[in-house]
Design a protein that fits this description.
By secondary structure, the chain is an alpha/beta fold. It has helices at 29-34, 43-50, 69-80, 97-102, 129-153, 158-166, 173-179, 195-249, 267-278; strands at residues 6-10, 15-20, 23-24, 40-41, 57-64, 85-95, 107-109, 115-118, 169-171.
Length: 283
């Protein structure tokens, strides 16, 4: 069956290009029966195609939102076993399982407007709490091989990679190079770029800019709070020191007799005047 999204093109006696432009999914018997599934890239079809490559150099160009984890890992293994030089290029997106396939390249290129996206494996499930716990445990194990691949090929630690996968990280060309996902920086005009990829790239860049502004604002607010706390603490400490000093040295105000009815020298006169006034006995 012809596959419009998984195509090989022999450019010369030294170089072959492979285009992975579809979803990473296995074909089913329904696809074989109905003649569907042309938009899918599966490991079995790729295996047969790779056997026909007779050039020492293979370029794999990727534009895919990803798909099935097992198919992605299988394709990664098949490409990793290529005997010649393997170069992978992102022509738009390499998301999810497609980003794992991208990591198979000895030379990896994310053009200026290309994007990677990495995340944890996910699925849909139904059942009781025991079933849900089992599914969660399985997903952790299913995610681990991809985590191992990213860690082995990049400059980041497993913990750093896991944090990015947890938050479903979009990775720009610059970030891909700095973190080690890509090995070479190239400008986009040397490679194909879809209008959709440009649009989503712009959205991702705007989102990252907003996240940075928010982070900077939070840091600024935090700095202000710290300054206020420090100033308040210093003021209180100074007041406490001053109070302790007055206690030790003595204060003139502390020697004065308390002012009030019971302690006033005119106390008896006040009480007598008040009594006479109450009974109107005073002339």
């Amino acid at each position: 069956m012809e596959n419009n999204f998984l195509n090989f093109k022999k450019k010369s006696d030294k170089e072959t290009e492979l285009y992975i432009y579809g979803n990473i999914e296995p074909k089913t018997w329904i696809d074989d029966w109905l003649g569907t599934g042309k938009e899918k890239t599966d490991a079995f079809t790729l295996k047969n195609a790779l056997m026909q490559v007779d050039t020492p150099n293979l370029i794999v160009r990727i534009n895919s939102y990803g798909g099935d984890v097992s198919e992605g890992l299988a394709i990664y293994s098949l490409l990793s076993e290529f005997k010649g030089h393997l170069k992978t290029i992102v022509d738009g997106f390499a998301c999810s399982a497609a980003s794992v396939i991208f990591m198979a390249g000895q030379e990896r290129i994310v053009p200026e407007n290309g994007l990677l996206m990495i995340h944890n494996a996910w699925t849909e499930a139904r059942g009781d709490s025991n079933r849900m716990k089992k599914v969660a445990e399985d997903l952790e194990k299913i995610t681990q091989p991809s985590l191992n691949i990213y860690t082995s090929k990049t400059k980041l630690s497993e913990k750093e990679i896991k944090e990015k996968m947890d938050r479903e990280e979009w990775i720009t060309s610059q970030e891909a190079y700095e973190w080690g996902f890509s090995t070479t920086q190239e400008r986009k005009n040397e490679y194909m770029q879809a209008l959709e990829a440009d649009f989503v790239h712009d959205l991702v860049m705007k989102n990252k800019a907003l996240q940075k502004e928010n982070k900077d604002l939070q840091q600024s607010n935090s700095d202000i709070v710290q300054v206020v706390k420090k100033a308040t603490k210093e003021l209180l400490e100074e007041q406490i020191k001053q109070f302790e000093k007055e206690l030790l040295n003595g204060n003139s105000n502390s020697k004065q007799e308390p002012i009030g009815l019971l302690n006033n020298s005119n106390n008896n006169q006040i009480k007598r005047d008040s009594w006479e006034s109450f009974f109107n006995t005073k002339n």
